[in-house]
Amino acid sequence: MQCQECGKQSATLHYTKIINGEKTEFHLCEACAREKGEQMPGIDGSFSIHNLLSGLLNLEPSFSEGQQQVRDTTPSKGARCSTCGLTYTQFSKIGRFGCSDCYQAFGDRLDPLFRRVHGHTTHRGKVPHRTGGRLKIRREVEELKRDMSRRIENEEFEEAAQLRDRIRSLQEKLANQGG
Amino acid sequence: MSLKRFTEHALSEWMRGKGPQSDIVISSRVRVARNLSGLPFPMLATSAQSSQVVRRVEEALQSAKEFPILAKAELIRMDDLSELEKRVLVEKHLISPHLAEESRHGAVVLSKDEAISIMINEEDHIRIQVLYPGFQPQEAWRIANQLDDWFEKQLTYAFSEQTGYLTSCPTNVGTGIRASVMVHLPALAMTNQLPRLFPAITQVGLAVRGIYGEGSEALGNLYQVSNQVTLGQQEEEIIDKLAGVAKQMIQHEQNARQRLVEGSSIQLEDRVYRSYGVLSQARVISSKEAMERLSDLRLGIDMGILHDIDANVMNELIVMTQPGFLQQYARARLDSQERDVRRAVMIRERLHHEESEDEQLKGRPDTK
After folding, report:
1. Do A126 and B213 touch (CB under 8 A)?
2. Which residues of A touch B203 (CB under 8 A)?
3. Does A59 touch chain B (CB under 8 A)?
4. Does the residue B368 lie in any domain?
5. What percent of chain B has pLDDT over 70?
6. What residue intervals hold the motif RDXXRA motif of the pArg binding pocket involved in allosteric regulation (chain B) (predicted)?
7. By the CB < 8 Å criterion, does A23 face chain B?
8. How far is A164 from A128, CA to CA, in rounded Å?
9. Do B297 and B251 reside in the same domain of the chain?
10. CB–CB of B107/B53 below 8 Å?
11. Interchain pair A12, B156: CB under 8 A
């Protein structure tokens, strides 16, 4: 397959970019990929994601010149991680967080980025066993609730009642843990 | 040291071992990225903080005796390795170039068979990697998951309920998982079907890339397929999707091989034997040519055209003919011309050793 940029070399880099929900496919040779600054995720070694990320971040309308002016007058409000000192501007240039608190510090601004890269903004995978207890319980409650509605629809009221009791006891457990 | 002895010590399990579907899938890898709570990511960590990460992992490993898969693992600090030793680890896919060259207090925990390598202070504090021969992404994930659980008993990870495991790069956040398979697709390449196959793969959210060769080439018809998405899907979904797509690629490659045999059998045989001729006789060979010829050789072995050559010759030689490995074996620094000569010697020796072993075992090989 030929590179879609130069049409000469064979394409070795194949990926799909989702921008505002619109999928675009890319088939590039490494030379053109470098030139375009198209770096990609998922690959260890010479390719890194950071240039691509900066591109993505700079597409964001909120990150325009106007926004920068606003930020100049209201310095660091929500734009700087108080733990490691990384600013959102720096993050958007290097494409990497400085510490785990940056996620909280940059908050909702990150959602469009996550949506573009992953198509989602919420974690659905594994939860740490030792420290992730509450989330585990909440997920179990959700699961049980779905199961309960199914039982009710099927008029299996006895089973549904058992599920209801189980949900209650889990919710109490959550309440006792605070929050 | 004889080549045989050298390779016995030098090669990882993924190059030597046999796995399922290993006629097409060379290796399966799962990598999980994790960070410790309360410490900046390696990019911004101070030297003291980075060294603390190594110390904490080291302390956790103290109790590894109860955990069989890590029992004989060894922690190696990058600062204790020579440039060449680091390069060899990179060529064996056990550490990343970033860890070798740019990390501060970088280290790696290696299991004895080198199937497990845990990088410390790479882009993230901890990167657990499991690398298996053949097509076993599910098995690799099972082990990576166990390792992750085991570490989590002793180390507190940076985790948020909303975004999952927090990583230095937003492309890894959530599950932190990157699963990949390395596939050998010579028949699809010869029959020019890759341009139709790759777009289909990227459409389902996977990435494909040629793994060897600089610039524009995908040398040796070796490709790596990996997941792009890490957030919003469960680990098992990610692995299953990759495995499902890989299975289809295997099927397509098998069909293409079948058609090659039916359609142009003598041309295929000729190509394989020519490459075998070059590999077993050449005195100077570039890395590029070696990769191409080895791909033909491997195809010939897998399709039963060549007998009495171990299919792992390709896996082994691809790694062993890399610059770092050649220099390690020569115990000297080599410029690129010297490397081309040494590479030819290495390949001849390896193929010859293969033949002489067969002679001992079965008498003279009957090559068709």
Report:
1. no
2. 16, 23, 25
3. no
4. no
5. 93
6. 339-344
7. yes
8. 26
9. no
10. no
11. no
Compute the nearest-CA separation of B212 from chain A (Å).
10
Residue B151 touches chain A, beta carbons under 8 Å: no
Tens of pLDDT along chain A (179 residues)? 778 878 777 777 777 776 666 777 778 777 776 666 544 443 333 344 454 555 555 444 344 333 443 343 333 445 799 999 999 999 988 999 999 999 999 988 899 999 999 999 999 999 998 776 777 788 888 888 999 999 999 989 999 999 999 988 888 887 776 54
Element holding B182 (H helix, E strand): strand B177-184
Alpha-carbon gap: A101 to the closest alpha carbon of chain B (Å): 9
Query: Which residues span the domain enclosing A158?
Result: 129-177
Is the pTM for the entire model greater than 0.90? no
| B245 lies in the same domain as B176 | yes
Q: Note whether B226 contacts A: Cβ–Cβ < 8 A.
A: yes
Number of domains in chain B: 2
A124 assigned to some structural domain: no
**Which residue range is the domain that position B309 belongs to?**
264-359
Query: Is residue B366 scored above 70 in pLDDT?
Result: no
Tell me if B231 and A118 make a contact (CB, 8 A cut-off): yes
B139-145 mean pLDDT: 97
**A25 lies within 8 A of chain B by CB:** yes
Cross-strand pairs, B32: B128, B177
pLDDT digits (tens, 9 = 90+) for B210-244: 887 555 567 899 999 999 999 999 999 999 999 99
ipTM of predicted assembly, 2 dp? 0.85
* pLDDT tens-digit series, residues B77-123: 999 999 999 999 999 999 999 999 999 999 999 998 899 999 999 99
What is the distance in angstroms between the Cα of A32 and the nearest Cα belonging to chain B? 9
Q: B218 — contact with chain A (CB < 8 Å)?
A: yes
Q: Which tokens in the block code for residue A49?
A: 């994601």
Helix (H) / strand (E) containing B367: none
Do B158 and B206 fall within a single domain?
yes
- Cβ pair A99:B41 closer than 8 A: yes
Other CB atoms within 10 Å distance of the CB of residue A103: 19
Cβ–Cβ < 8 Å for B321, B343: yes
Q: How confident is the model at residue B149 (pLDDT cuts 50, 70, 90)?
A: very high
Candidates A2, A4, A12: best to mutate against B (most CBs of B within 10 A) is A12
Q: From A86, which residue of chain B is nearest by alpha-carbon distance?
A: B44
Instruction: List, in sequence order, every beta strand (DSSP E) within chain B.
Output: 25-34, 74-77, 107-110, 116-120, 126-133, 159-160, 164-165, 177-184, 206-210, 222-227
Position B224 in a domain: yes
CA distance B107 to chain A (A): 17
- For residues A100 and A73, membership in a common domain is answered with yes
Alpha carbon of A178 to those of A134, A174, A175: distances in Å? 10, 7, 5
